[in-house]
Write a structure and sequence with these properties.
The protein is an alpha+beta fold. The protein is built from five helices and three strands. A three-stranded antiparallel beta sheet has the order 1-3-2. α1 runs antiparallel to α4.
Length: 112
């Protein structure tokens, strides 16, 4: 696995909410202020801040306060480590399904 080892449970829990996924999708375009992230959600600012704190705890985003503006940006390295884990899981399951397919093919060939 990658040198950076995030807590996968926190990451998947954070991404389980559609609002947080929408926030992450927006942050994929670049850093933005919290007010811009809150606008399309229709949620109160404290609610959006709670969503951001969950994302920050999972190390999916960073926030920096400059004056009266809090800027949010994504942390792509967290996604890279998560993708590494997912690739390992995919390879494991593909190998299992390949073995199952081979077994079924051999059973069909053996049938009289």
């Amino acid at each position: 696995m990658a040198k950076y080892d995030p807590n996968l449970s926190l990451i998947f829990q954070a991404l389980s909410d559609p609002t947080r996924r929408a926030i992450m999708a927006r942050l994929g375009q670049g850093a933005v202020p919290v007010s811009e992230l809150a606008r399309p959600t229709g949620l109160a600012l404290p609610t959006v801040m709670r969503h951001l704190s969950v994302l920050e705890e999972a190390e999916l985003i960073t926030t920096v306060k400059t004056g009266r503006t809090r800027m949010c940006s994504a942390r792509p390295e967290t996604f890279a480590a998560t993708m590494d884990w997912m690739a390992e899981q995919r390879a494991l399951w593909e190998a299992r399904t390949d073995r199952l397919e081979a077994l079924l093919a051999s059973m069909v060939d053996e049938k009289p």
